[in-house]
Specification:
Elements: E1 7-9, H1 14-24, E2 28-31, H2 37-42, E3 50-53, E4 63-66, E5 69-72, H3 78-83, H4 85-90, H5 92-98, H6 104-109, H7 112-118
Parallel strand pairs: 1-3, 2-3
Antiparallel strand pairs: 4-5
């Protein structure tokens, strides 16, 4: 099936993404890796007025130490979480859990933030 029509926005910064979300209102949807959202769009189980693609925001990718915490960017793919040394050292259970998400293809494309935004 073909998705309903929607506007597409690819912000270059978090500030631009927030503005797009505010302008889109409740009918806006966030696109991470697309592994959860695209099938729902194709089945017309979701019909957003605007799709906000976070793929162009570099600051949302990666895993880093942040004081006494580990920060995982919303656009970090599952595969990177599984393989990351900081995750293995400090939150091994998270890496083990993420390793069970779907299949290898999804783990290379799907993002933690995309799944949370779509939930």
């Amino acid at each position: 099936m073909i998705p309903s029509k929607f506007d597409y926005v690819k912000p270059a910064s978090v500030a631009e993404a927030i503005t797009a979300l505010q302008q889109g209102g409740e009918d806006a949807k966030i696109l991470g890796g697309g592994q959860s959202l695209i099938p729902v769009l194709r089945l017309r189980m979701a019909a957003p007025s605007v799709l906000i693609d976070l793929g162009g925001i570099a600051e949302l990718r990666g895993i880093r130490e942040d004081g006494d915490r580990i920060a995982i960017g919303a656009m970090t793919v599952y595969h990177d979480i599984v393989r990351d040394d900081l995750v293995k050292q400090h939150v091994a259970l998270l890496g083990q859990a993420v390793a069970t998400v779907a299949d290898n293809q999804v783990r290379h494309r799907g993002t933690l933030g995309g799944s949370l935004a779509h939930a």
